[in-house]
Design a protein that fits this description.
mainly alpha; Helix Hairpins
């Protein structure tokens, strides 16, 4: 985007354009790192456009009298809502209360049988032995 076109935009639109460029640059950098695209030229153009936008925004912060007037937003025509009339419902007839049946008692579950010892277990004597690494001999100091 040329600098002249950027200068014609008001601050809110320029800020929105800058955010869009930033998000698009992020996506492009991500795709480049994944090897999905070869958009180096597009990335360079976006970087330069974003720099132009930020420069113009900074100029406007320093010299607010040179910034263009924001365009007034057009009011949308909203037709007045029509009053909604609810249809008259007849009163409901009284209904006799239903009695709830008593809940059924849960059947007692059978207790699970205790687990039996596994068939393939190591003998206790083999589990008690430990492997011990021999300690390394202390290093000798060099004499004078």
């Amino acid at each position: 985007m040329k600098a002249d076109k950027i200068r014609e935009l008001d601050n809110t639109e320029l800020g929105r354009q800058e955010q869009d460029a930033r998000a698009q640059m992020f996506r492009l950098r991500f795709q480049l790192s994944m090897g999905q695209t070869d958009g180096m030229k597009k990335l360079r153009i976006l970087r330069k456009d974003r720099a132009r936008m930020l420069t113009i925004l900074r100029e406007r912060e320093q010299h607010p009298d040179t910034a263009p007037e924001p365009e007034p937003k057009k009011k949308r025509f909203k037709p007045e809502p029509k009053p909604v009339t609810k249809p008259v419902k007849p009163e409901p007839k009284p209904v006799a209360k239903k009695t709830r049946p008593e809940p059924k008692k849960a059947a007692k579950r059978a207790k699970p049988e205790p687990k039996k010892a596994a068939k393939h277990t190591k003998p206790k004597a083999a589990a008690a032995t430990k492997r011990v690494k021999p300690k390394a001999a202390p290093k000798k100091k060099k004499g004078k």
